[in-house]
Each structure stands twice: as structure tokens, then as C-alpha cells.
Automatic annotation (TrEMBL):
Pfam annotation, one family: Mu-transpos_C_2
Family: Belongs to the transposase IS21/IS408/IS1162 family.
Gene name per UniProt: istA
GO biological process per UniProt: DNA integration
Region (Disordered): 421-453
Segments forming a coiled coil: none
Protein name: IS21 family transposase
InterPro entries xrefs: Integrase_cat-core, IstA-like_C, RNaseH-like_sf, RNaseH_sf
Organism, as annotated: Ideonella aquatica
Domain Integrase catalytic: 172-345
Molecular function terms from GO: nucleic acid binding
Length: 479
């Protein structure tokens, strides 16, 4: 089958074609319709008469506009200019009325979204430019009655603008000792053949790109603070600014537009002397250095390794950092992190002689009815006489030291993980008697007989004394 393509029809030819169709005799057109059947559409009846005033004049480019004015200046008529440039005479007239060329601009039309434009611009980045979510929220929260297509068209330029901005963003570099970036990553590994979610804390120095990583079983406040102190010890110092996303252990929200730091973390930052910095909301790429570090640990360290427990995980991770991560050629700096760290180390604030915040931090705990206090997810016993009282807990090395009014009342080894219980028998009520009953109940020998020698001297009393105790006095009898 051969397909023939006809050349495009000009505006002038289209006008002539319309005029020729309109001039067809009515009888001829009706005869043609009858020949084609009752469902055929007649050309004359299907054609809508239109005048040249109803047709929108095509828009001329700047070169055509200048050509029209040049020919008119040479004395050519409007008809001659129209034939020479293959445009309509009305277009030539409109062009000659203009003193300067102006590009075509579509007339702005009102839309149901006009009153929601500002809200869409603010909300779109928060929902990742999802037109579907925006349309649902507009209908549910703002009484919008328009269609989804309208919202999709309004979101498209915003999404494009954000994509262009992401492609053209500039990498932010810092000087030695100026900034470090911190973040968590999570990965499931086998610890003793048991699948376990390990939370990896990563701190990356901004200048040298040298990193520190350590695994934990959670991302609680004690884990975060312990990870920082371990990182400071690893680097031998700390940067002036530490950058975070808006994790709950760092920031609780905003007050009058300003972030409100977690009180414990604010005390920790003041104790060590660094300034916390926060990423802008929904701009996690601001801390791209540490995000790359998290991915590097997951992809390069974890695959193919076997771990007995969390301690073994961290031991292998520390060896990998020293033998692999520090010695690789970094893709951005094209230098080894350990080599650039030689220039950054002198700029770090020294931390070796600084006391530990975790060990210096005093925790107040109220003794429960079971004479236990909860510390970091585990429970430890104290003397039962302190039930309902407030005690102070301080960590000293691997021990929890518990004091009441300045006096040490209990010491326990720090339990690993969560849900552990450490109870000392001497803290419970009647511990000695319970131990005696348990010891003799498990033996077949009869319980010992108490004698005068074993129990001491026993006073012998007259039985009349007990009769007098049980009898009422004369005054009680009268009553």
C-alpha cells in the first residue's frame, strides 16, 4: 500500500477551501448525502460559516515583522506584502499598527487553583512534588472542587524547577577542623546466626573526609552520646560545628521559627564545647558527605562478613576503618583521607583530657515498688527501704553507682542490651530468712531444735500473768 502525503495547506488556501465548500449548490450537496446513506454527514451542513474577523491572526516572528515594515517603507501595498510573505492581509495590517515587535503572550486565564497557588508552592516539596497527594489534601482540607489534571499541570513546573536546582547545586567545602557531619544508618546482619538490625553511627570530617563508624542496637540518647565520645577519642579531637538532620534525639521541634534542641543533647554539646548545626527541612542532601559515608560502610564493609555478636561487629568495623577506609583514594578529593587528616588533626579541639559527659551525668530515678530502678532499658535493685525515694545514678567505668543523699547504696555492673535484670539478694526484705527457708526446705534433714544453749537464756514467767492480761479491769467491768 502506497501512502501519499500532501503538502501543508497555507492559511490562504484554507480560506479559499472554506469559501468553495460554502458555495456548493444545496441540491448537489443533498444529492451527495443521499447517495452515501442516511448516516452520512453532508459537507455543507457540517461546515460552520466563519468570517475573516473570527480567525486569529498568526503571530509573526521578529524577522517577518521587520520584513513587513521594510516592504511597506518601499511602497508595497498590503496585498503585495501578504502575497510575498504568504501571510494574511489582516496580519500585515496588525503588524503595521505596532511600533515595535513583541513576542506572543498567552492571556492569563483564571483558574480554580489561583487561591491555592501559595499553599501548593510551599507544600509541594514536603510531599516530594506528588500531584496526587496535593490534590487529595486540597479536596479534604481546603475545599478544592477542581480535577486532578489541573493540580498535575500546576505541579509540573515546580517539579522541573526543583530538578534543575538539584542538578546545579554546588558542593559546600569546609576548612580543617571546621565541620563534621553525623548520621545514622541501619542494616540487618547476622549476630550469632540471629538476624539483627544494627544501627551504625557515622561521623565524617568535612575537610579530610576521614570517617568514624560504630554499631549499636538502637538510636537512643545514650547510644548517640556514647557514639560521639567514641568518635572524639578516635580522632583525638572534635570540630567546631557538627551537622545533623532533625533527629528527635537532637532537636524536638521549632519555637517561633527557631529549632528547639533536646535538653540533654544541648547539655552534651555545651559540655564538649561544639555548636550543633541543623539541615534545612527536607534538605538532607546538605549533609551529603556523611550520607556517602553511611552508604560506603553498608556496601564495602558488611557484605560477606560473619559476626558473632555486636562486640565482634565493632571490632571488625574498627579494623576495616584503619586498614581500608582511611587508606582508599577518595572519589571527591582524589586523596587518601588519612593523608588529608594530617592537615586537619592540628585544627581539631583536643578532647583527650576532657571528662566523659556520660560518666559525669547524674540521672535521677524513683525507686519502684519492686525496689528496682530503670537505667537505659535495664533494671537494677536497691535496698527495699528506699521504695518511693529518689536516688541518683552515675556511671563510673563499667559500673552504675547509685546514691541516696550522697551515700552509695548500690553498685551494679552495666548490663548490655535491654530488658536485663540485676538483683542483689541483700537488697530485698527478709532476704536472710528466705534464704534459710529455701536451704532447709531442699534438705531431707529435720529443722534444728532450738535449745537454751542455742537460743540463749529464756525467762520463766508465772502463768497467772497471762490470766491477768486476758481479764478486764474493774473499771472496764463497770462500763
Amino acid at each position: 500500500m502506497v501512502v501519499e502525503f500532501s503538502p501543508p495547506i497555507t492559511a490562504k488556501e484554507r480560506t479559499m477551501e472554506v469559501e468553495e465548500v460554502e458555495d456548493l449548490p444545496t441540491a448537489m450537496s443533498e444529492q451527495g448525502c443521499d447517495a452515501q446513506g442516511p448516516r452520512a454527514l453532508c459537507i455543507a451542513s457540517a461546515t460552520v460559516p466563519m468570517s475573516s474577523e473570527d480567525m486569529e491572526a498568526p503571530v509573526l516572528g521578529q524577522q517577518q515583522w521587520e520584513a513587513v515594515h521594510a516592504r511597506h517603507a518601499l511602497g508595497e501595498s498590503i496585498s503585495a506584502i501578504a502575497r510575498g510573505l504568504d501571510v494574511d492581509r489582516k496580519t500585515v495590517r496588525n503588524c503595521l499598527r505596532q511600533t515595535s515587535w513583541k513576542p506572543y503572550q498567552r492571556t492569563a486565564e483564571s483558574s480554580l487553583l489561583d487561591e491555592h497557588r501559595a499553599w501548593i508552592t510551599e507544600r509541594a516539596p514536603q510531599v516530594n512534588y506528588s500531584a496526587r497527594i496535593l490534590w487529595q489534601e486540597l479536596r479534604a482540607q481546603r475545599g478544592f472542587q477542581g480535577s486532578y489534571v489541573i493540580v498535575r499541570r500546576a505541579v509540573a513546573p515546580l517539579r522541573l524547577q526543583a530538578s534543575v536546582a538539584a542538578l546545579t547545586q554546588r558542593r559546600f567545602e569546609t576548612g580543617p577542623g571546621e565541620q563534621a557531619q553525623c548520621d545514622w544508618g541501619q542494616i540487618t546482619v547476622s549476630l550469632g546466626e540471629v538476624p539483627t538490625a544494627v544501627h551504625i553511627f557515622v561521623m565524617t570530617l568535612g575537610y579530610s573526609r576521614r570517617g568514624f563508624a560504630m554499631g549499636f542496637l538502637g538510636e537512643r540518647m545514650p547510644d548517640l552520646l556514647a557514639a560521639h565520645e567514641a568518635a572524639f577519642a578516635h580522632f583525638g579531637g572534635r570540630c567546631e560545628f557538627l551537622l545533623y538532620d532533625r533527629m528527635r534525639t537532637v532537636v524536638l521541634g521549632t519555637t517561633k521559627g527557631k529549632p528547639k534542641l533536646n535538653a540533654t543533647f544541648a547539655s552534651f554539646a555545651s559540655h564538649w564545647g561544639f555548636t550543633p548545626r541543623l539541615c534545612q527541612p527536607y534538605r538532607a542532601q546538605t549533609k551529603g558527605k556523611v550520607e556517602s559515608g553511611v552508604k560506603y560502610v553498608k556496601r564495602n564493609f558488611v557484605p560477606g562478613r560473619v559476626f558473632h555478636d555486636l562486640e565482634d561487629f565493632n571490632a571488625q568495623l574498627a579494623a576495616w576503618q584503619l586498614g581500608v577506609a582511611d587508606l582508599r583514594t577518595h572519589g571527591t578529593t582524589h586523596q587518601r583521607p588519612i593523608d588529608r587528616f594530617a592537615h586537619e588533626a592540628p585544627a581539631l579541639a583536643p578532647t583527650a583530657s576532657h571528662p566523659s559527659f556520660l560518666q559525669a551525668m547524674v540521672r535521677d530515678r524513683v525507686v519502684a515498688d519492686d525496689w528496682l530502678v530503670a537505667i537505659e532499658g535495664n533494671r537494677y535493685s536497691v535496698p527495699f527501704a528506699l521504695i518511693g525515694k529518689t536516688v541518683q545514678v552515675v556511671r563510673q567505668g563499667g559500673l552504675w553507682v547509685i546514691r541516696h543523699r550522697g551515700t552509695v547504696v548500690a553498685e551494679h555492673a552495666v548490663q548490655a542490651g535491654r530488658g536485663q535484670l540485676s538483683v542483689k539478694p541483700e537488697h530485698g526484705p527478709g532476704a536472710a530468712m528466705r534464704n534459710t527457708r529455701q536451704r532447709f526446705s531442699s534438705s531431707s534433714a529435720p529443722p534444728p531444735t532450738v535449745t537454751a544453749d542455742s537460743a540463749g537464756t529464756v525467762e520463766v514467767r508465772d502463768l497467772a500473768i497471762y490470766d491477768r492480761v486476758g481479764s478486764p479491769t474493774p473499771e472496764e467491768a463497770i462500763v
